[in-house]
Amino acid sequence: MSTFPERRLRRTRRTPAMRRLSTEHHLVAAQLVLPVFVKEGIDEALPIASMPGVMQHPIEAIASVVTDAADAGVGGIMLFGVPAVRDAEGSGAVADDGILNRAIRAARDAAQGRITVQADLCLDEFTDHGHCGLLAADGSVDNDATLEVYARMALAQARAGAEVLGLSGMMDGQVAVIRAALDGAGHTDVALLAYSAKYASAYYGPFRDAVESTLQGDRRTYQLDPANGREGVAEAMQDIAEGADYVMVKPAGPYLDVLVRVADAATVPVWAYQVSGEYAMIELAARAGAIDRERTIAESLVGIRRAGADVILTYWAREVAEWIRAGKDFA
Ligand code: PBG
């Protein structure tokens, strides 16, 4: 008499072909988005020390970055600007000839509808103090004054041809104010990705190098406390009510519980951002010989998908899209 239960669970894991039959979640290239850094005033790509393999690109290179990503089947590129000059109001963000708005135009021309063009909508790369909004006299971040600049930044990005705006500033009311400004100017087709559950995270460290952030201090008065899960769900619900087309959880890997809860509650597609620190940890551990690079990348991404993300922003988007094309299989 057998002491095992009737159904043997290992039966379906016996061979790669049997395992493929039972795979619940797949990575899909069209649902990967590649973040791209564009730096003003350089004429060749510069490596980012804390993100091995990621570069700051000159504006002239944007067309080929876009074409390469589109050829690999990547679903979108998310553009971040690194301006040569910053000021207290973040003027470079709203100027039509600001680096990010120029990059959007170059990307839109190269994309030819094959890949979606997305832009970060936040002031931190453009302000000399490095905060995501304007500062009040007492040094605090002024929510409502910032919204007015975000609305102008959104219009500049829409004029340049962005199809999805990534609202990453964590000001209250930003989705409603930007939606109204766009609709009022006839940009009703521009979609809004709300970085809803965006945590005040140490995992953004390498990104601050990538955009040469000048921030002193932290963003805890507007980004979420890492200890709070329920609040991430509340942010997503409020952004949906304000008109967000997509909501995001960020970082991804350390916040998979929040991702599950947002994915359960959301009535719009859910995105997750595998951030710079998540990228750097795997790259550096692999370089040190501690882990298998490709398997760890694949596992980190499928975990994000399993938790409920439809779309994933990842610095590996192009490479992983190429693996998918080549039929690479980690089973
Ligand atoms: C804000 C923004 C940040 C990231 C994306 N958008 C930085 C921050 O909030 O401090 C971080 C992305 C990453 O770490 O990969 N514009």
TrEMBL record:
Query: What reaction(s) does this enzyme catalyze?
Result: 2 5-aminolevulinate = porphobilinogen + 2 H2O + H(+)
One Pfam annotation, family name?
A: ALAD
E.C. designation(s): 4.2.1.24
State the UniProt keywords alphabetically.
Heme biosynthesis, Lyase, Porphyrin biosynthesis
Any keyword Lyase?
yes
Xref: InterPro entries: ALAD, ALAD_AS, Aldolase_TIM
Involved pathway(s): Porphyrin-containing compound metabolism; protoporphyrin-IX biosynthesis; coproporphyrinogen-III from 5-aminolevulinate: step 1/4
Q: Does the keyword Phosphoprotein apply?
A: no
Provide any one GO MF term from the record: porphobilinogen synthase activity
Family annotation (PANTHER family):
DELTA-AMINOLEVULINIC ACID DEHYDRATASE
What this chain does, per the record?
A: Catalyzes an early step in the biosynthesis of tetrapyrroles. Binds two molecules of 5-aminolevulinate per subunit, each at a distinct site, and catalyzes their condensation to form porphobilinogen.
Whom does it interact with, and what assembly results?
Answer: Homooctamer.
Protein family: Belongs to the ALAD family.
Its name, as the record gives it, is Delta-aminolevulinic acid dehydratase
